[in-house]
Amino acid sequence: MADASHDRHSGDAVPTRQSQRADLCAVHDPERCMVSHQRPHVPVRPRPMRVDSNRAGHARRARARRILEDRILPDLAAFRGDRGTMMPEAVVLTPPPSEDTTGEARTATPTAPRVARAALEMLTPPEKTETHCLTCLASLEAALSDGLLGEWQHVVDEDPLASLFQSPGWCMAWYRCYADAYQPYVIVVRARRGVVGVVPMAVDRRTGDFAFASNTMADYRDIVALPRYRAKVVSELIRCYFAAGFRNRLEVGWIDPASNTPALIANACRERALKYTVRHHPCWRWFPPAPQKPSAQKFLNWYKRHGNVSFDVVRSAAEWERFREEYYRQHSLRQVHAGRPIAFDARKTDLYDRLFRSADVQSHVTAFRVDGTMLAGHFGYVWRGVLLLGPPSIRLEDEQRSPAVILFSWIIQNASDLGLSGFDLTIGDSDFKKRLGNTCVELTIVEVYPGPVAYYVRSVRSGAVSAAKTVVKKIGGEDAWKTTVKSAAAWLDYKRQRLREMGGWTAARAAVTAALSRVYEKRTGLVYAMTPEQLHPLEPRLVAGEQYEVHDNCVADLLLWTGSSPSTTSAITACARAYARVRNDNRLLHTLVIDGKLAAWGFSYQPTQPANLTETPGAVLDFEANAVSLYDFHTIPEFRGRRVYQALLSRILARRFAQGAARAYITVLLSNTPSRVAIERVGFQLIREHHYRRLLKRASVTSRVPQR
User: Fold this and answer.
1) Is the peptide bond before 174 cis (omega within 30 degrees of 0)?
2) What is the model's pTM?
3) What SS3 string covers 460-506?
4) What is the pLDDT of residue 179?
5) Which helix (H) or strand (E) holds 78?
6) pLDDT of residue 124
7) Can you list the residues of the chain whose pLDDT is less than 70?
8) Does domain 519-704 sit in CATH 3.40.630.30?
9) Domain limits, the chain
10) Does domain 1-30+288-420 have CATH number 1.10.1740?
11) Taking Cα atoms as reference points, which of 469, 95, 58 lies closest to residue 275?
12) Which of 95, 410, 93 minimizes the C-alpha distance to 263?
């Protein structure tokens, strides 16, 4: 893959590759496959999974199954749109009646006929084909050098339903970056004229799972074929899947509604008596015209009042190098904030670097800045004139003012100048997608099972989940499943991980203590204070050659921990969320780093009102003028016992006293002996005790001044 020049685009608009044919609009045609053309605030519910029996005489066929049947009208005129036509074999299906068996009408109803599924008999290839599979990177590279690269690209260019994620530019970059984790498995179908179809698949080296190249990183996963060979290529995909004996189910999708692949898979499965399921999910898209009042306009106006606002398109290699580090940092912190694993490891950053510099993939990189500071960034891709949503980054301090939505709104408002004919927000119905999109389509995924056992296990599980959702919805309302059940499931998963981390005996003792505290709870909270002359600064115990630093409001230091402890992961997530919540209240996050590794952190602030003490609910701490309060400290387990906590306290107190603070406060539970000892060693003096008692729901707090 050749690198692009340093200045990739000389004009203001982002150009389209010559091979991305402008006349192939079947996938992102805004007049096709529409579920809702209302404003994006109109909700669209995803359809639940339906498990079909795959037998022609089954009496409980769902709507998805009926769509996949050959109910075809001969009239093609209705699908001759003004934005490009479907492939010549495209035909029209009569919209089936509503599948709603509960009597509840769907919020968004079809406003245009479904795009046709091509008649299967019309897609029968007129000549024989042969198939071969390239199952290692070396053989794939050799085949590309022998001409496969050009033939693959030709098939993509001639396929009106092809997506970026099955093009050689995207797939080869991914194969090379993830060679240690995935083994290529590229299915190539040839006819007398040459290559007529390509299915870029991969095999997970650890689990042996069979999946499309780039797996879940790809928003669309479909075959690539010349129009008249689509049925044959689908058939060969299923044949290769079963011939190789893969144990996982084959997932094809999500698939654009313009594609006839679901119908072809259904037909191939019926011919082989295979089990499969079909699912759907909404996908929001925006097409011109732009809204008169952009989303998040009030937040944009706020930024304009407080600084110099700019929107930038990253084009040159130098601009990319400046952008990418902050983009990766912001995105990773956002993942930490959400409690998810960090996505941008060395392989993914290498992939994005290759994609930006590639002449075969048209990346679209933008940034929203205020006074030169990036508040949001976006790395997307342009495919046949339509921008595909990529992962946005958000500066944690500005999360509440929706900087990413501001950036996306700017893209929509300036789409014409940027050379964009639309914005595909990809799968999902989150609030920001509904706000930005003006068209909702329905994507499809088809899952083919390796055997009947896997199918029926999945069927039972899906039925149980569906029944549970129905019950929860009736009891707790529409959002109860997401807000209550999923939260409880996440909590249970965390407890399971903690059990494995703590060990059986320690976990059992903690469980007994927690159970008893449900009935009766007793704890004592201690309040400590210090004046500048009482400070006894301490240094950490360092190994020879080690150095340490203390940083203020450097939230990126949270990314310096790379361990796997679930308790530390949870503590870091809580710290990131607290920072995003309180940063605008002039509170400081302090981090201590030893040789590039996160060791400890805590917060401090200058209080302007009394504080409610979380250690002893009901107790209140009053502050005098020019006081400073320290709270929420945590030391990474591997650095405990090295006076790291004392060193961090010493640095914070020295800085605060130098800035004019007259008195410092900190609180701790009497039972937390290590923290209490560390606090006393740096010079804090005990000034008050709060005794908390609770029996069932009756609680009381008593306070006293300790005797000297």
Assistant:
1) no
2) 0.79
3) HHHHHHHHHHHHHHHHHCCCHHHHHHHHHHHHHHHHHHHHHHHCHHH
4) 96
5) none
6) 52
7) 1-126, 708
8) yes
9) 1-30+288-420, 48-95+113-279, 481-513, 519-704
10) no
11) 58
12) 93
